[in-house]
Amino acid sequence: MDFQKPRGRGTLRRKKPPAGKALARLRYFAIQRGVPFRPHKPRRAPLAMAPATRSRLPYLTAFAAKKRSVRRSAQPRRKWRELGPRLIPKGQTYGTGGNDQPAVSGRIVSVAIDPSNARRILAASAGGGLWASRDGGGSWRPLTDEQPTLAMGALAFAPSDPRIVYAGTGEGDSLALLGVGLLRSTDRGASWTLLPYDPFLGQGFYHLVVDRADARHLWAATTVGLYESKDSGASWKRLRRPLTWDLSFDPASGELLAGCQDGLFRSTNGGSSWTSVRLPGRPAGEFQRIEVCHAPLNGKVAYVFAANDKVGRLWRRSSVGSGFARQTLPRDLDVSQAWYDWCAAVVPDDPDTILIGAVELYRGTLDATGQWEWTNLSSRETGDSIHPDQHHIAFAPGHPHTVYAANDGGLFRSPDLGGRWKSLNRGLGISEFEFLAQHPANDAWLLGGTQDNGTLRRSARGTTWHQVALGDGGDCCVNEKNPKICVHSYYSMGVELSTNAGRSWTDIGPRPGSAHVALFYPPLEMHGELIVQAGSSLFVTENRGRHWAECQIPGTSKELRVATTLATPSATEILVGTHLGNVYRLVRGPGGWGDAKLTSLATPRRGAYVSDIHVDRRRVWITYSTLGGGHVFVSSDGGASWDDVSGDLPSIPVNAVAVDPADSDIVYVGADNGVYRSTRGGGRWIEYGDGLPNAIVGDLVLHARHRRLRVGTRNRGAWEIDL
Hints:
The protein is mainly β. Helices cover 4% and strands 39% of the residues. It has a 4-stranded antiparallel sheet, with no helix packed on it. Strands 2-3-4-5 form a 4-stranded antiparallel sheet, with no helix packed on it. The protein has a 4-stranded antiparallel sheet with strand order 6-7-8-9, with no helix packed on it. A hairpin with a 7-residue loop joins β8 and β9 (193-194).
């Protein structure tokens, strides 16, 4: 979602990244972990380590190590408490009138409604696991917080036996948060069993289809092809090798349609053999995305919704032998992120009405003259609007006009095919925090940047957070001496400042030139009136943006060194880490930051992404998020030399570090699977506390006055624990 000018909440403008924000954010995630970034060649998923075996996949190894760590702990374990948000009352949409700020949560990629009870709903969060509601979406509870991964991609009930549910781990849509196999439930989702991992280790699911006549028979569309299982997912046969996005099965004819990277394919024998289906006017080359769907009322009618060469296309057939014909689409259809947000579904009681989702959600109806009438269902000038970036469309069994829309803002339901919408996001704790900041005295007050759901503020106890700035929430900080002064960012360079604790914001810059390079979320830091934001240069201000001093980070035209993290141990000193593992110190000059001196510190033998820097009374700590190698280093001589104190930490990304001000040998790190503590200044690490979901910890802050540790997770919100 790209808000160029937040309405009444500041004046900061953003240039949309080439190929869309979702792609830029995925690249940011890949850079952090040092994995290949090949979004247009996704046959090998980015986090699939070669060879992708159970023993060598780092995240599975880390999960096993985490369980051993729990058993090693000799002391009683404290409990983590969820801080939310379980409710974000007013979210963001592209609508301009009526109900255009519905409650939101986080990214939902799939939803399934129990065929025997429409009030029982299961939802798959991209990185926050599976969730269940027994009251039609009025309340929710998490189901899979202790599974090896919380990344989900697909979800399906068995029509012939609704006690059986399947969930594919690994989000195909993002190609980043990938999985470890298939989950199966035999009690309507109350409990889950992880099935054998191969061949889905490190891969992602797009879609699952269960045979209507046989609950043991299912097909899976994944990042590594099209698969079939005849024994409830215990074993699999690969039917096609190319990446497969979608499947549709017509039980009346037994026809399977598959939307694959190399086109549309058809099988009439359960997938034993396949034939290519001609799509008139199809351009040459691979598709960017394909969705396929039979009309439930009449399976002879089928649709193909596809994107290629930045153009959206819709084909329809009226009978099996008639072939597919090109149809018209909405003029304002945005296909820039078709690889990420793309879905379609035919209305159950009307083969001539289809819903399609991209950035926006549309309903199209074919009239008697062969003309299409399209209605935008997600962004309206009057009436209800919902969050953009659509991932899945589902209909309630037995209620053909009750539709569910899953998107980056969560889950919404309409009783009349999109005429009216109700948010079902109350209770869904699936916000994706990238950064956290806190009030030094008021422990209830927190500020956090979230993916596509803005910068959020918690100003009172409880799990309700309010959105105080739109778009993608980036890094944020609070002035320790005057906490009413705080700063936050969006994606790319630029800072907004508030003097009233986040109730209103003012754009204060900086505005680098076109040659400047920065991360999708540039690091931002604050110390009193000192504010610094950095990319290939550091921009520093002491007067709230009236003047910015720039200091170039050493590099070459072929190899820029880009800042990944900052620390401000004093008002005259800045430490910066880069994506290549460099660490620098910038010291204010006698005449100000314009003549500041930049020196290079020693580099721990890692050309890797520096994810965090922390300076305590005696030492400097740095962490790395690149897969492999050491992840926690400490220097006792100001950065002249470093010791690797990773010790027995699992070899997965470490994203944040905090040191207990009461005892500098007690250190906490936030990793891709939780929080670890050392009481010896590193080396020996134990998973800290009970009850924290097995989620990626993106940021970590320690509240010294109230002795609490807070974490912001990717897709499971914020949590805290008493120290």
